[in-house]
Amino acid sequence: QREHLAIVSLPIDKIEEFAKIDAVKRVEFGTRMYAKLDKARNATNTDWAHKGIMVDHAYTGEGVVVGIMDEGIDPNHVTFMNSDQTASRVKRVWTFMGQDGSYNTYDTPSEIASFTTETKESTHGTHVAGILAGGYEANQNIPYYGVAKGADIAMSAGLLYSNNIIYG
Q1: Which pTM value belongs to this model?
Q2: Which residues of 80-119 are buried (b: 16+ CB within 10 A; e: fewer)?
Q3: Does residue 1 have a pLDDT over 60?
């Protein structure tokens, strides 16, 4: 239970009885969720920008550096490789492990390649960076890639304190 939420498993024939309890305000059935990044790109016309439709040329993030500050990054995830999978598009990583904005820098290909993650408790930063700049398209059956799929990437990661976020 979290605050005013309870996740309960019941036999189907007990749901009406459960719903009549005074403390129960609403009952919902769990549903299967699906990845929708391919739908989000279409809904925001990102696919049009990638193809150069109604703009002067295709925009894929190529020639741009995008940045992120979050927790749980993996700069060596396959989605951050260049289009022919020969090099990483992550050009710099900073880790903020205290509260005061102090950081470590990884700025060479070998330093970045040796970095795994600043925490094994979260992968949120990798997920968000994938939406921002994921570019894995080697398997054309995987339609989940990011907005700036050709951009170089700078990643800041660590404890989400104000100083760290501002510096990151």
Answers
A1: 0.77
A2: bbeeeeeebbbbbbbbbeeeeeebeebeeeeebeebebbb
A3: no
